[in-house]
Amino acid sequence: MLVLGVETSCDDTAAAVLRDGRTILANTVSSQDEVHGPYGGVVPELASRQHIQNILPIVDGALKTAGITLGELDGIAVTYGPGLVGSLLVGLSLVKGVSFRTGIPYVGVNHLEAHLLAIHLEQEVPFPYIAVLASGGHTLLYCVKDVGNYIHLGGTRDDAAGEAYDKVAKMMGLGYPGGKVIDQLAKSGDRKAIRFPRARISQSPYEFSFSGIKTAVWHYLKTQSRERWESRRADIAASFQEAVVDMLVKPTVKAAAACGVRRIVLSGGVGANSRLRALMKEKADAEGLEVFFPAPKFCTDNGAMIALAGTHWLKRGRRDDFRLNADADLTL
Ligand code: KG4
Ligand code: ZN
What domains appear along the chain, each with residue ranges and CATH number? Predict the structure, then answer.
């Protein structure tokens, strides 16, 4: 089965062609980092306009790279939520138009589901597994029992982990998006230099909170001269990152033990973080658990994961009609 995947939920315009849910024939992403960089975060209206400019060349490019024509596709998968409604509408409208014109069936894909299944693009990971989905918009913990069978264990009460990275990077003048930059900078810093607080939600062991760490870094910067903290940027980055990663790892390992699940899978942009990978592996090893990481390009938003999730549903016979609308708050 040959499936085109289209993703425009936030600020990446992405398309991929996937054969039989296994072979990636093309996977093309156009990032808008330069457009949003000066604002330190995604500006929704600008994101929609960029998607409109990029979507046709990206989809055409993916088909060309794959060496196929539209007519050869068995189906199209497109993200219909959650995300920025203006951004989602660009991808969804394009796919509906193509489907209407060509008769190729299409399915709307839940972006969260696609992240949870992205690991299967590269590795055979048996179900069930605990998946931690940490991105710019979400921080969620699921027990993934099978395709379509997701048990929600917890999530963030306030900011997403990636959002904390992006905001702290902005405070420190490191640019946007902040995750990758802080990850790099932290490599030369001391993780124990500053003890930033770790939020714990007493009512639920699987809930997260990242607004406090963001405020703690802000206070730390305010209490120092700019000259002083700039000379300690690597230590601040490493200490901030250690707190975030700690807050992500503990509930995940706990969830695996409590649910009797032996495997942990990372997903979402923050899943690409080198320290998160290292600490998750260390703590999971200590408990006899296995950890699986998608390649960084499959952690961040991409069309291949949308094509993969879509392939599962198309194979099960699902077809969406033209009444499907973008849903900014879609849940799993
Ligand atoms: O999954 P994604 O591409 O988009 C959303 O669905 O949000 O995630 C983007 C987020 C951004 O907040 C970015 O700063 C963060 O993932 N990120 C990272 C790393 N690479 C991207 N955070 C920490 N370490 C990284 N290496
Ligand atoms: Zn995402």
Answer: 2-116+299-315 (3.30.420.40), 125-293 (3.30.420.40)
Quick: pLDDT tens for 25-56: 999 999 888 889 888 888 999 999 999 999 99
Nearest CA to ligand 1 atom 22: 179
Ligand 1 pocket residue status of 166, Cβ below 6 Å: yes
Q: Are strands 23-31 and 12-19 parallel, antiparallel or unpaired?
A: antiparallel
268: CA distance to ligand 1 center in Å?
7
The per-residue pLDDT for range 258-284, each reduced to its tens digit, is 999 999 999 999 999 999 999 999 999
pLDDT at residue 31, as a whole number: 87
| Distance (Å) from CA 137 to ligand 2 centroid | 7
CA distances from 11 to 43, 114, 263, 283 (A): 9, 16, 31, 33
Per-chain mean pLDDT for the chain: 96
Q: Is 83 in the pocket of ligand 1 (CB under 6 A)?
A: no
79-99: pLDDT as tens digits: 999 999 999 999 999 999 999
Peptide bond between residue 82 and the one before it cis (omega within 30 degrees of 0): yes
Determine which residue's CA is closest to atom 23 belonging to ligand 1.
179
Residue 227 CA, ligand 2 centroid: distance in Å: 36
Model confidence pLDDT, tens digit, residues 107-126? 999 999 999 999 999 999 99
Pick the atom of ligand 1 nearest to 268's CA. 1
Cβ 273 under 6 angstroms from ligand 1:
yes
- Pick from 40-49, 61-70, 322-331: least confident: 40-49
Write out the DSSP string of 39-78. GTS--HHHHHHHHHHHHHHHHHHHHHHHT--GGG-SEEEE
Ramachandran bin of 326, using left for φ above 0, alpha for ψ from -120 to 50, beta for the remaining angles: beta
For residue 275, report the distance from its CA to the centre of ligand 1, in Å: 14
CA of 118 to the centre of ligand 1 (A): 15
